[in-house]
Structure formats: structure tokens, C-alpha cells
Design a protein that fits this description.
Elements (H helix, E strand, L loop, with lengths): L24 H11 L3 E6 L4 E4 L1 H7 L18 H17 L3 E9 L5 E12 L5 E10 L1 H22 L9 H20 L7 E7 L2 H8 L1 H18 L5 E6 L2 E6 L4 H17 L2 E3 L2 E3 L3 E7 L6 H17 L7
Length: 324
């Protein structure tokens, strides 16, 4: 077999195929164009179609592939897509280097957005002269959409794994992860010479068992959701609120001094005290007790949790509806 020659411009002509007495060239081309589920097309040096497969005809909504001859992508696609397509084909003709499996978005005859994996190649005549490009595109829309839906499902599952079903707050599992990360971050800040504080608030609902015993667990659940909603309303976007377990909650306040942490806790306490939970005609007075600590270079999350929990129980022992 001959070595490939290099026409003007340094473009390398591909090897010629060996002729076959069993399968004539015309039959090969006709079979490819008429039966391939992928779109097959040939273009001249001006990127105008000179030959198209049946799938291309269906995509563009024409009755016969010959109707595409002389037209270009600009006749069917948005300007930006057609411009990029032309640039790709000019580059292929200039360098002789094909573009393989490029993901592209296009639109079919009924306005649906389709995603294609497209490969384009230089097109030579039998003397090795460059006469245009040819390409083949595979419809990847269903696969891409399925991958997108799968990614959404994974993201939803990930969110669910971090979230408490009842209140919509982060769950206890995520609390430990965030607290550990926050402690490590602020420890590094302090080692770097920065003045950096964060606060941890623990709170629970006073006499919550009585709420469940008197009104039932459905009303108790509504009270839990109410407290969670007030926590979300009063905290900043940089803060993180958690349901720690049962009727106990936690808030992590980054870049927060103890005085501000106690102020925010008291604001939440006062709001809850003066705004009973309303469910239909039922008004349920609720109060909360809170313990607030500031990070003091504790080494383990459990050490900081223990301090916040001790202050919470001090508030309850001191009469409830207090911040300690």
C-alpha cells in the first residue's frame, strides 16, 4: 500500500480503500445514506450540502434529501450554531484534522432541542484534492436527558440524606460534619493570626412532652416545624440550622462573637414567647430555652457540644424560657 501523499498546504490525504468486486462503491454509499440512523452529510468547500442521508432529511422535515442540496446549516439552525459549524469546517479543511465526537445542540423540524455527538472529516476527490467536508452525527438527546435526570435524582438523594424530613432543617448527621469542618476552619484562621469566632447555639422546646400529651403528636410535629421556620427566618444565609433530635435544635453561627450569638438567641426566644403556634382555632403558647457558646479552640466537636448542652440545661434548671 502506498504511503499517504501531501497535497498543497501540507494536508495529509487518507489511505484509499481497496476496491471490492462484491460490494460496489455506489451500493456502499446508498446503503449508508438510506439506512443509517445517524445523520450523514457531505459538504462543499463553502459548507453547502451536496449529499445527505435519509435521517438528515427527517431531522430537517423535508420530503427528499435532494431538497437539502445547496443549502447550509444557516438555513436550518440559529446563527450562532451555523457560524460555529462553519468555523469548525474551515479549520478541518485548513489543517486536514477531523473533529471527533463533539457534543452539539441543534433543533429539529418541530422545534425540539436535540443533542448530537458529531464527527467531521476532510473530503477529498480521487486525485487527493480537498473538495469539502463530510460528517456523521448521532442523536444523543435521550441519553443526555437521562443522565441529567439521574444527576438531579442523585442531588435530591444527597439533599435528603442531609435533611430532616419533618422540619426541613439539616439533620444530626450533617450537624456533626459541619461542626467539625467549622472548628477546623476557625482553628486555622486563629493560627494564621486572625481574630475569628463562631458560636454554637443549642435549644429545645419547654414542656414539649405536655404539648404531645395534650394535643397529640400531629400538633407536636406542627410545633417542631414552627420552631424550625422561626430559626430559618432569624438566621443569616451563612448560618446553618439543624434538628439535633427530638425537640432539640442547633445553630452554627460563623464569624460571630459571643455577644451577638446571645443577642440572636434572645431575639428568637422573645419572638417565640410572644407568637403562639396557631393551628386553626387552636393557639398553643410555646417557649424555648437556649445555651450559647463561643469556640474556644476545643479539639473535639463533642467538647463544644457538651458546653452548649450544659448551658441549655442550666437555662431549663433556672426556670426555662431563658438564654444561658
Amino acid at each position: 500500500m502506498k504511503e499517504p501523499s501531501k497535497p498543497d498546504g501540507g494536508i495529509t490525504r487518507p489511505y484509499r480503500h481497496q476496491p471490492s468486486d462484491l460490494i460496489p462503491d455506489a451500493l456502499i454509499i446508498d446503503t449508508l445514506l438510506s439506512t443509517s440512523q445517524d445523520t450523514v452529510y457531505f459538504k462543499d468547500v463553502d459548507s453547502r450540502f451536496v449529499l445527505n442521508g435519509r435521517s438528515h432529511m427527517v431531522q430537517f422535515g423535508v420530503k427528499d434529501p435532494s431538497e437539502l442540496v445547496g443549502k447550509s446549516d444557516a438555513d436550518f439552525y440559529p446563527e450562532e450554531f451555523a457560524k460555529q459549524s462553519r468555523q469548525d469546517e474551515v479549520l478541518i479543511m485548513k489543517t486536514g484534522i477531523p473533529i471527533i465526537n463533539k457534543m452539539e445542540q441543534g433543533m429539529n423540524a418541530v422545534g425540539q432541542i436535540l443533542v448530537f455527538s458529531t464527527s467531521k472529516y476532510p473530503l477529498y476527490d480521487d486525485k487527493g484534492k480537498l473538495i469539502g467536508t463530510w460528517g456523521i452525527s448521532r442523536d444523543m438527546t435521550k441519553l443526555v436527558r437521562a443522565e441529567e435526570e439521574l444527576a438531579k435524582a442523585h442531588a435530591k438523594l444527597e439533599a435528603l440524606s442531609l435533611t430532616d424530613d419533618l422540619t426541613g432543617l439539616f439533620n444530626q448527621r450533617h450537624f456533626f460534619s459541619v461542626l467539625e469542618t467549622t472548628m477546623a476552619l476557625f482553628a486555622r484562621k486563629r493560627l494564621g493570626g486572625f481574630s475569628a469566632d463562631f458560636c454554637l447555639i443549642f435549644l429545645d422546646i419547654d414542656y414539649f412532652k405536655q404539648v404531645n400529651d395534650t394535643h397529640g403528636h400531629l400538633i407536636g410535629d406542627a410545633v417542631l416545624r414552627y420552631i424550625a421556620g422561626q430559626m430559618m427566618a432569624i438566621t443569616r444565609s451563612t448560618d446553618a440550622s439543624f434538628r439535633y433530635g427530638g425537640d432539640e435544635f442547633a445553630i452554627i453561627l460563623p464569624d460571630t462573637e459571643l455577644s451577638y450569638g446571645r443577642m440572636l438567641a434572645d431575639r428568637l426566644r422573645i419572638f417565640v414567647e410572644h407568637n403562639p403556634v396557631v393551628i386553626g382555632d387552636l393557639k398553643i403558647p410555646v417557649t424555648i430555652s437556649l445555651g450559647v457558646v463561643v469556640f474556644a479552640n476545643e479539639k473535639l466537636p463533642g467538647d463544644l457540644i457538651q458546653k452548649a448542652d450544659a448551658l441549655l440545661y442550666q437555662a431549663k434548671n433556672d426556670g426555662r424560657n431563658l438564654v444561658r
